[in-house]
Amino acid sequence: MPDVSIAAPNEAAADAGEQIARAGGNAVDAAIAASLVTMVNEVGLVSLSSGGFVTVQPPDGSAPQTVDGWMDMPGRGRALGGGTWDVDTEYGGGVTVTIGAGSVATHGSVAAFEETHRRWGSLPWRELVTPAIDVARRGFHLSSASRYYLDYVHDDIFGWDDESRAAVHDADGAVTTGLVDLHDLAASLELIAADGAAALHTGEIGRLISDDVIRRGGILGADDLADYRPVVRPSLISRVGDWTFGTNPPPSVGGVCVTAMLRLLDGRPYGPWDADDVAHLVRVQRAVLGHRLDVLDVSADLVHDAGAFLALVDRDHLAVLESGSTAHVSATDSDGGACSVTVSSGYSSGMIARGTGIWLNNCLGEQELNARGLHGLAPGTRLLSNMAPTVGHHVDGSALAIGSPGADRITTAIVQALAGFVNGGLGLQEAINHPRVHVHRAGRPDEVVKTETELSMYYGGVAATLRRPSASAGSAGAMVAAADPRRDGAVRLVHGPTPGPPTAV
């Protein structure tokens, strides 16, 4: 039984990771169990109708791998368009989102979890799903992140579908402070525990979802779900000092941005963050995020264009610098394994698929990630993603897992936490707590450099875990977990047969 450290978005998710670790599970098992709980209780941020990525550092020190369970464009054999409308909200500094049945993309996160578990997990699949079943069966209170989001959109997005409205509102029409009870969700999770991801793709849950989406004017059909496959790819590699980091490769754009920013920071900060370091960080963000908006988001060949951009970064830093909703879980174990999981359902379509208890995603309606328009991609094409779950391996044997939710702030939050930890000499928790900056709409006429003056979930919600080189079962201080105070983050340290007290970070 290895020691395991877990960082999750809420206490129930962290409890699930701890439960699995105490049963003998490794970092992968714990991270999957915790992530499944977030799909129950992080309402509005993620659900079983989600996409995501899992990056794993195998315990043998071999190259990290990323399992792509992100959304596909649906619509095989169907006329595209319809079943949607736009909502303007002040959430996240102001955003327009497209919701309704026509905004629902082909989910894939549970399929990615199943593939990750098959390759690197140790406990039976059913055991990993059990904590999520228990949370769904008991009911749950909204997390602070969910409540913050719902305060903006509880009527416009979550109020048009009767079942959705009843779940998140009290008798007076305000966001509920009581238990959220989705009576069909526990039964759906039971099917997933028994049948795996097939339940969501070729089984009863998948049929209920596609039938309801089509009935309400959407395009997600049974063929789209049945044809979905997770994809395992070598992670995108960066080297910073004695650390080697692996993150999400194309067709996700998030990992490309993290990699480019880490390389362009060029070892900064050279100690505690100072004004020059922050100014350089702003230049880096402006260059990378501006290139993303101008080139990567509209690329017809993202693999080629991402590779060309990273080659330019490596060849000529100066040339680059002078050019113009989500949940995350991290876990590491004393065997040297690390697992970083980021999942999202977009802003939510606002509908619960009848008979399932599952809020459906609106990832076709995330306008900032769909530069070609609502239904502008060919069916079966992966959508763009900001997500960048990242793992690290140090020459001394240390292992790290890190990631964040936060839309376009995901990449900047991860990079600033990593730079403070690796280059700046900060402890892991200190690096996460440190104030952040974010260049919003880099290179555009309405560009804004936002500087954090008080902790805000706008700037992400980094979760990170670390296995130090002295790690062996029960060795005190070898395992570290750190969660972002900007959200309800929770951490757990689970020791093996010879327990030792956890060490404060």
From TrEMBL:
Q: What's the domain of life for this entry?
A: Bacteria
- Pfam families, per the entry: G_glu_transpept
Q: Does the keyword Translocase apply?
A: no
Q: Which InterPro entries does the annotation name?
A: GGT_bact (IPR051792), GGT_ssub_C (IPR043137), Ntn_hydrolases_N (IPR029055)
Q: Which UniProt keywords apply?
A: Hydrolase, Transferase, Zymogen
Q: Which family does it belong to?
A: Belongs to the gamma-glutamyltransferase family.
Name under which the protein is recorded: Gamma-glutamyltransferase
